Structure formats: structure tokens, C-alpha cells
Amino acid sequence: MTKIKEMIGLAVVLMVLAVSLPALARSHGASPYGPEAKRLGAGLYLGDPTGIAFKGYLTDKFAVNGVAGWEFRDKALTVIGDVTYDFLDIPIDSHVVTLPFYAGAGAKLEINAGPGDDTVVGLRVPVGVAVQWVQYPIEIFVEVAPGIEVAPSSELDLTGGIGGRFYF
């Protein structure tokens, strides 16, 4: 039960960080970024893990994003935090959507549910593409994140999924 409490506490800290960083950037005179010029998005992530997703733009290219959810393969509560950079907008002839291609670096904390199971810490490199509507604060995305679990033992890891966020 203490592992679940630790996981909830970590998720709360990450959410507060995601909400406060864009507000801090806005207070320093920065203009808004993201779909429909909104900075903070929250929504669903379907994949490995499955849960809630958030993203907070710090600049027009840099963002902090994360996922808190359940990893069915390892039967574990998982929290992921990444810093991403939108490398380019894939050129399309549309005034309706933009297609930013992003990559970044981050970490994963996995708290296994079974008795005696280990807590896993890993590093990851997310790569993905998003569809951001110009007139609506909505984004859908697909990403894959190869990585390595570094504790309690080293092994290759692969996470990823599809998702959607509403920006406010």
C-alpha cells in the first residue's frame, strides 16, 4: 500500500510542476504556444502504459510531458516524465492542422503491484508525431519510446502508444 501512496504523491508533484511551469513562463511575458495558442494539455494515453497524459509547453518548441497509468504487461503503476522538442512541422497543405514531429528524453518509474516485486527505474527516448488543430485546442499523437531499465537490473525497454489531449 505504501508503494501506491508513493506513486500518487509522485503523480501529484508532476502535475503541479506541469501546471506551474507554463504559468511561470507566461508571467515572464512569453506568448502562448500549442494548439490554439494554449500551453497546457491533458488527456488519455492508450498503450504501454495506459492512463492519463499531460503536456505543458515551455516555449514554442520545448515541452514537458508525462503519463501516469497502468502497465498491463508488468502489472505495475507507471509514471513517465519527458522533455520534448518539436523538431519540425511536417509540411502539409492545410490551414486546419499542423503535424509537429518531436523527440526528447525522459525517465520512467514503475511500481510493481505484486508482493516482493521490484520498483523499476528507466531512461527513455520518446519519438512521435502529433496532429494539432489550428482552430481547436485538441491534439492527437502517436509515439514510441525505446529505452533502458537501469534499476534494479539493466534491460532494454520499449514503451509507446497513441493518445489525445485537450488544451486549456
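(ticket continues) Second input and output from the same batch:
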Amino acid sequence: MRTLVGLAVLIAVGGAALAANVDAPSVSAAWAQAWSAKDLDTIMALYAPEPVFLANSGERWSGDDEIRTNFAMGLSAFTPNLTLHSLNSAASGRLAFDSGTYDEIITAAGATAASHVRGNYLFVFQRQKDGEWKILEQTFTQFDPSKL
């Protein structure tokens, strides 16, 4: 509940400047770069302890093991090329967020044709005891392909 209240406060400040020592979009960009490189170890190093990923399918993946397993399956089946476009980010205390839109070109293993996927994303970050920002929760949504 405290995380939700903290997130509500972050959203309320909307366009407020980020705290001097956090650049949420750069953490998001590091995740996108590692995703596109299929670098699972780098991806997982960006997460806080006990992270949550809210999958586009509606599933909730909790913890490093579940997230790693699902990401590994996805990365073995597809080659992604992800670009994030940050629209709003802010920080307050130990929480920060970054939200925006994304474009992703996805090629299935063994396929020659790629698919273009677009949607929205949200990263929620938590400052760790060492001062580093890590991903606490994350989600991606997908635009209706018929409206692309």
C-alpha cells in the first residue's frame, strides 16, 4: 500500500524535475539497450530485490527467477529492437518513475519478416541502500495493431 501511495504522489507531481541524482529515463534506456542486445544478465542486474513485471498478457511475474525465465523464453523466440520515448518522469524520496511510448521491431526466430509493435511503458524505480536506482515494477502495453 505504501508503494501505491508513493507512486500516486509521484504521478501527482507529473512534470516535476527529477531529483539531482536520478535520471530515470537513462535507467529505462539501459534496460531497452540490454533488451535489444538480448543481454539477459545486464537486464536482470537493473532490477531491485523482489521486482514485479506486469506482462502485456495480464500476468504478474514476481521475483528474479520468474522474470528471468519468462524473458529468456521471449528472447530465445524473438530478436527485439526496442526504442523508448520518455514522456514523463519524476522522483520523490526512494521512488521514481519513467513513462512513455515505445516502438519495437520484433523478428521471430527463423523468420525473415519483422513485426512492428507500439505501445506505452511504465517503470517504477526504487533507490537502493547504496544510492543506486533499480527497477521495482515495470509494465508494457500494446496498441491495437489495427490502429497502427
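Agent notes: The chain has one domain: 2-10+23-147. The chain is about 30% helix and 40% strand. Closing as not reproducible unless the customer responds.
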